[in-house]
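Our preliminary data section would be incomplete without showing what the modeling component actually yields. Below, a chain of 374 amino acids is followed by its predicted structure, encoded as tokens that our downstream tools consume directly.
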Amino acid sequence: MAALNLSLTVLDWAAKEAGRDRQSLAEEIAKRDDDRRRILQGELTIRQAERVAKLARIPFGFLFLQVPPEPSRPSIPDLRRVTDAAPLSDDFFEVLADATSKQEWFIDHLREGGADSLPFVGRFRFASRPKVAVVAEDIRRTLGVTVVDRTSSQDADAYFRKLSDRAEDQGILVMKSGIVRAFTKRRLSEVEFRGFAVAHPMAPIVFINGQDAVVASVFTLMHEIAHIWLGESGVSDLSPTTDRAIEIFCNAVSAEVLVPNHEFLAQWTNTPNVEALARLFRVSRAVIARRAFDNGLISWPEFEVYLRPLPRRPREPGGDPFRTIPVRNSKRLTRAVVGSALSGETLLREAASLLNSKPDTVIKLGSRVFGREA
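Predicted structure:
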């Protein structure tokens, strides 16, 4: 079979799109050493090139370009501190594009079903300077968050799941992942970003970087939900020392939802200990320390001590796909995609692509979610 001569630059780009490098790509699509050596030099058969395009999820014709196509990146306001923030990476924009493609599918799905807009998206406008306590109370009431939710949660992870489920019940798509799509070797950087929100009246998205600590994720979740209540999309800056007005506001709302000031002061009177109250409220030490500083209970140097992150064990990606796929893609969206595929409204191949999985996995998910096979 005649060989195709591909640009090595394009081949490297395709390998990256597939979550691999040129060497590992060659090893995956060819068994013989001679074939692998030719692939490394850009010589592929048509069948091998088709396999590359499939793995990279790119149009077959792109492989014949001399240079990779210019990426079409979705835009989102960057609300991180300009002086400190590094430029957003290709990994971030790939995650954003993946999330918004899911959102677009879900919006069409909702419209076909005659769904209405969600009343809380943009309920308050930041320009009108709403009160933190008012927005926080509206979030608590809408999501049904109570003290019992926290006290009955075994740990911060259980608390996050409970709050996430409450948000999804109201129509927010909550996605939490520490990797790019399903590429376990492409881990996201929590230093780059902790989360983002994409406000839409029918299908708002909250994305949480799963590489971050669980106690930080609880705060990030509520911070991004505050963005949805303001109708403001953005990559967030959750630093307690941020100087951006909207981020200061969303941080304050998140703190008031999770650590109501009156309850904090009552607890501090009995237990003036940052670590102990962080465990009690299922949030990070920095959140409690900020509460203490804002109430004049500790000095700025004492507060700064708690900004230093504690050492923690890196999270290993992967695990049971039937548990991780709904978390990475939003449980609400996963149910909709799987249900649409099982009913024949959406092709299995399209459903698998939306969930960054395989068609047979979608069928097995259907058995788990709906208790029946396709």
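Residues 90-258 form one domain. The chain has a mean pLDDT of 89. Preliminary results of this kind motivate Aim 1 of the renewal.
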